[in-house]
């Protein structure tokens, strides 16, 4: 709504008309942009979906199918004449450019620390002259156990009669999931959703106003849809704001500063009294450290750390290299049971490829079909992993580029466990946690640790089941505390400080840590990758984040300026990204004396 128009309507008719005309022109410009666009960022194929509200407000999402990232929400749209810009908060990216060829091309620049050209070209989809009976917007509610999820589908047909659709899970804030094998014949209608290994099949009612059928995702559940006049769009994300810069904050002052900066969140936001959210924070600089907490967390609360696990798996690899047990160029095939997969004639995937996310392996294996969606990794064992490898092979694609793969790191953890002849949890203990004295960094909790394991929550603040990983444990199985992770970061900042007499494996740890920091390949724009660690080239900061069904995490360290921090949150990522990431960015900015991302 144009609030300016309503405010001045009784003041001056000319201002009212000016506001109306401005809104009308803006709405026309936005409406002309609505639709789907495709672009390429290096080896990544991207899809941009733009929507325009009647008042000219733009919204949209981006898909990166090769990375398994669908429906990343865009925000902070600015449309001025032929200039367009928007943000993608969940990946800390932005796009800015110009509208060309009458809206057929968006030529501009993608920025994620550094900038790269990124041009979007309008999808050439030509709609049918007469919509099919199933074309349109449909909304239904899926009842699964104690959860109720609103599911929205958008169906359209082209001039040749082929049907297309996308699926939105409104309550999970997942938008734009692409359909496949969309079939409409008579009253029968069906489609698949490959990204979540689901499908729907049913019938169109005689009046054309409802669809009745079943949603299948490991099990079959009733799911009926009612026709809607328009789609429900994702609510707009407020634009990012920044708190003013202050002098670089010392560790001893960081808790007071962060408490002040979190005032709104503590009063009426995520950390308000009565909320379920808990945050543990650890900060370190110049050997001075502090650990503190907010909300339902305590300083010694244990969290799932998700993909921060990958940095531990990378360090295990570095340890085993220093101990002469493997080499970076070792083909992973050699660490699997004999006969798992034949030697490839072309380039084979090596341990280096896996630890730098350049193996070409998909984000997840295609035989991943959890029996319990609430604990999805628990029943994916070595047998399933080897079955996938046997069918897929271990040939490294010639054009392999950075592609974030849980499968790849799960395979790396399993392969190293095979070489060491011990399960991943024991390998982690012997190579890292015992040498560093990390008593609460584990895969399986003791009863005493279980009492400190803070319950996890989804993006809707509902308590969820913990995740237990088996064959893919190297990708995300670890639980830990802020204090333990701070000790881990201290060792990364100062490998020379490691007590090499702590255990037999401690002697190689300083060299292994240094090895794990050596950048080996490109990653995201403006970043390189070492052994799992991502390094921001401009700042020299190493970082990694993580997320499971009920938790999120963010850790970073900067050797040049000798600071580090860890943030653990008992809530998963939401539509605007990760609260742990935002607090982590805020801490880094406070350390550096820069304007700091506002924490709502």
Protein described:
By secondary structure, this protein is an alpha+beta fold. It is built from 14 helices and 32 strands. The strands form six sheets. Strands 9, 10, 11, 12, 13, 14, 15, 16, 17 and 18 form a ten-stranded antiparallel beta sheet that branches. Strands 1-2-3-4-5-6-7-8 form an eight-stranded antiparallel barrel. Strand 13 and strand 14 form a beta hairpin. It starts with a helix and ends with a strand. The N terminus is likely disordered.
At a glance:
The protein has 14 helices and 32 strands. The chain has 600 residues and is an alpha+beta fold.
Low-confidence runs of at least 5 consecutive residues: 1-28
Q: Give the biggest sheet.
A: 10 strands, antiparallel
Shape: globular
> What's the domain count?
3
Total helices: the number is 14
CATH class of the largest domain: Alpha Beta
Q: Average pLDDT, to the nearest integer?
A: 88
Quickly give the CATH architecture of the largest domain.
3-Layer(aba) Sandwich
User: How much is the radius of gyration in Å?
Assistant: 25 Å
CATH fold call of the largest domain: Beta-lactamase
How would you name the CATH homologous superfamily of the largest domain?
DD-peptidase/beta-lactamase superfamily
Helix fraction, binned, reads 10-25%
Number of strands: 32
* Beta content: 25-35%
Distance between the termini: 24 Å
Structural class: alpha+beta
